[in-house]
């Protein structure tokens, strides 16, 4: 994203466009233009500009993990014993390549990283912890929390008015 970009540079139409695309990223420019009371070309230009600025990073379908056989949603807190070496950097590279890791955040507090992980069942999550996480150099502790019930799972960013 451009260093000089600020969310304040988004007008009401940009915000409405972003909100609508978060609801349905498959909308064509003509359908989006109609909903926003624009003509197609200005709507397409706005969308393209937001893509080029990096405000819109990509488009994806939101899938139901359970219907795809991922019944376990886990949060793994990882703590490193020594932060001075390159182990954390190597860990980040490994994690970025793992499709079952939906998110990884470097955090403050007792843990150094919090991972959101999906697995088919508890046994496959256990194998992930043993075969992947425990084999990473420098890790001193791993603490897992398993989701018992999904109360809210949202990926949409609030698009607040001006």
Automatic annotation (TrEMBL):
Residue ranges occupied by any HTH asnC-type domain in the UniProt entry: 10-71
InterPro entries in the record: AsnC-type_HTH_dom, Dimeric_a/b-barrel, Tscrpt_reg_AsnC-like, Tscrpt_reg_AsnC/Lrp_C, WH-like_DNA-bd_sf, WH_DNA-bd_sf
Stored Pfam families: AsnC_trans_reg, HTH_24
Transmembrane residue ranges: none
Alphabetical list of SUPFAM superfamilies matching this protein: Dimeric alpha+beta barrel, Winged helix' DNA-binding domain
Keywords assigned: DNA-binding, Transcription, Transcription regulation
Entry protein name: AsnC family transcriptional regulator
The organism of origin for this protein: Bordetella genomosp. 1
